[in-house]
Predict the 3D structure of the following.
Amino acid sequence: MKALVEEKTGCCFDSLSLNLYRDHRDSIHWHNDREHEGLWSFPIASVSFGAVRRFKWMSGKDGTTTQPLAHGSLLVMPPGFQGDYVHALLKQTRACGPRINLTFRRRATEWKKGYRAFGRKK
């Protein structure tokens, strides 16, 4: 999965988080990821499996945006996103099945051989 995500994004990731949302009642409230979780100067890639859920993000100036995340979808939050926006996967009233989310981040500041700034392959 990591190789596929890196191929699609052109970025090199060195960290993976796995979250299970058991049903429509599991959620994560409005937040931005802390920089120790992944460098804000790199994109964050999120792959969803299972039930469709609504990913939301907002800023004070742009309002709220909603993106349905279907089974197999890839969402990429660009560099700087965490500083400008908060995001959430809120509880739903409509019942749904489980969903697994894989979140790929870059934590190391140095780049591996064959990679340059923002983890893009040479």
